[in-house]
Amino acid sequence: MTTRSRSDEATAGRSNDPPLLILTSLAAGEKHGYALLQDIEEFAGVRLGPGTLYGAIGRLEERGLIEAVGASGRRRPYRLSPAGAEALRVALDGLRAIVDVGSARLAGSPAALSPTGSAA
Amino acid sequence: MSPARTAARLLRLYPLSWRLRYGDELETLILDMSDGGRVPWRIRADVAVAGGRERLRAAGLGGDSPDARVRGGAGLVLWAWALLVVAGAIVQKTSEHWRQALPAGSHTTATVAFDGLIGVAIAAAVLVVAGIALTLPALTRFVGAGGWAQIREPVTRAVAITAVFVAATVGLVAWAHGVSPRDRQGYDTAYALVATVWALLGAGTLGAWTLAATRTAARLTLPASLLRVEARLATAVTAALGVMAAVTAVWWVSVATVAPTALTGSFGSRGSAFVPQLLLAMVLMLVALGLAGAGARRATRALPYLADDD
């Protein structure tokens, strides 16, 4: 049987993946839930729901990609762990490869040269 | 309703362990996002769906990694099997006297369908037992490594409800000896009521063990080769469930065509083949089939992404 590499939420490479968005947001520094939502909406234009956000936070924390700052609290901040930084780097490399290939292909595409979409 | 109360209600959709860890933070976030007013429906729906997802994970049926998807899929099939057992028990109870009630020579189709149902049920039960048995070495290693504490709660609960069910069975059997066959068919209201509670307790016992099994399976270290076998067993059980639902329908229709009163028991006089219990059994079978189909699909689709065993 053909075996592909293990699928990984954080490295799935989908730009609207909550885990990827959270890791990207935390790369700029620690944040609590509400600040994460605001930041994600600002840089990605994606409005995550609170349940979706904390579902993803739970998975990321479980896998050691992020960690809570402080013992407890109702607005507990989170920060990127070294493993999370590495996972983010891998995910962004994957996205960058797609962007590079897509951009190169688009540049040579007849559809991109003609505003009507027909080859010149 | 105040936003705080709505948030507290929404949090109840999550498992207790999750609430203890993230409950305060999520509640605060819901209130922050509601800005002092009513909690928007978009937020309520998002939290409700996420809570359901966490419940599934806690029951060993959720998770995003390929091996969690295979386990979760196989677990869903196990839940479907448990539902099928309940449906089968209802069919068995309803079909106690159908053979005697049919005119001689008129029940070939019904007999073939019913015998087929029994045969496929036994085959599917063997597959389910095989799927459980294959995980026993991993379970032994898990318990040996101190994992008992992680599964003590669901297993203890299942043992406790089983003890209550066994005691109730002994009491009901003792009572049944003093009740006439006619009253046992539902003509004694008190007996019928207690028998219904007993049946619900039986279904609860089955559910408690199924929950214990799926929660335990979620914690075991299972090699990819075994997960592949489990996914195929889950697919085979799903196919068996489909056959069982189909032959039950064929049996019901064939009996209803020839002798409508046969399904109302030997004391029945209502003359209708639309016995509510059988209708319930068919609905349960179809729900089980839907669950199993979803589970088998989830497990099978994750197979190509499983990492090879070292």
- Rough outline of chain A: elongated
Number of helices of chain A: 5
pLDDT under 50 segments of chain A (min length 5)? 1-13
The coarse silhouette of chain B is: globular
Strand order of the largest sheet of chain A: 1-2
| Overall number of strands of chain B | 0
Furnish the topology, listing elements before pairings.
The complex is a heterodimer of chains A (120) and B (310).
Chain A: H1 18-26, H2 33-44, H3 50-62, E1 66-68, E2 78-80, H4 82-107, H5 110-113
Antiparallel strand pairs in A: 1-2
Helix pairs in contact in A: 1-2
Chain B: H1 3-11, H2 16-34, H3 41-58, H4 66-94, H5 98-101, H6 108-133, H7 136-144, H8 148-177, H9 181-187, H10 189-217, H11 224-258, H12 276-302
Helix pairs in contact in B: 1-2, 4-10, 4-11, 4-12, 6-11, 8-10, 11-12
Notes on the structure:
The complex is a heterodimer of chains A (120) and B (310). Chain A is 53% helix and 5% strand. Chain A is built from 5 helices and 2 strands. In chain A, strands 1-2 form a two-stranded antiparallel sheet. The N and C termini of chain A lie far apart (45 Å). With 310 residues, chain B is an all-alpha fold. In chain B, 78% of the residues lie in helices and 0% in strands. Chain B has helices at 3-11, 16-34, 41-58, 66-94, 98-101, 108-133, 136-144, 148-177, 181-187, 189-217, 224-258, 276-302. The termini of chain B are far apart. At the A-B interface, α2 and α3 of A face α2 and α3 of B.
